[in-house]
Write a structure and sequence with these properties.
This protein has 65 residues and is mainly α. The chain has a domain of 39 residues. It has four helices and no strands. The radius of gyration is 17 Å and the shape is elongated.
């Protein structure tokens, strides 16, 4: 069964190619970031720990995950 939000998104994608492209790209980025966060948490790392390991700032990590 398809919910109302899914129906709306699919209809909007059909009406607007730019919406479809941006939605799909944005959703992929969201999924990627969620997987990174999950991996970080499973590894027992804080954002600060991860930043130090990657030789960057915590703010850069927090923007990503």
């Amino acid at each position: 069964m398809t919910d109302d939000l899914t129906k709306y998104i699919e209809a909007r994608k059909q009406r607007s190619p730019s919406f479809a492209e941006n939605y799909d790209t944005g959703y992929k980025e969201f999924e990627y970031n969620a997987l990174l966060k999950q991996a970080r948490l499973e590894a027992g790392l804080t954002q600060d720990n991860m930043a130090k390991r990657l030789d960057t700032k915590k703010s850069a990590i927090s923007r990503i995950i």
